[in-house]
Input
Amino acid sequence: MSLAERLKKVGTDKKISQQRLAEMADVHYTNVGRYERGDAKPSADVLNRLAGALEVSPDYLTNGSIDDKAQSYISDRELLSQFKRIEQMPEDVKDYLKEIMDAFILKTDLQQKLAH
Output
């Protein structure tokens, strides 16, 4: 999802019109429309004001949530689901699982090097 799509979605979800968002962020309403269509990108200052008005982080508007990022990097949905479940586990369990994954990664790396 792009900045334009996230900006529009957050505004819609919070029931904030372009006009109202423009007033809250001290931006001309036509610029808000241009940002939502992807015709223009806000400056860092304007992005911060838009994010503040929408009560989200500028990072969320530009990059999305952690889930959005994970989905863009991990194509295996079952693996992504497992990672999400692991994230909810106690820290000691997560640390143990990380050690196991590190061992498998190391083993795979060594096998690949030995095969070449």
The chain has two domains: 3-67, 75-115.
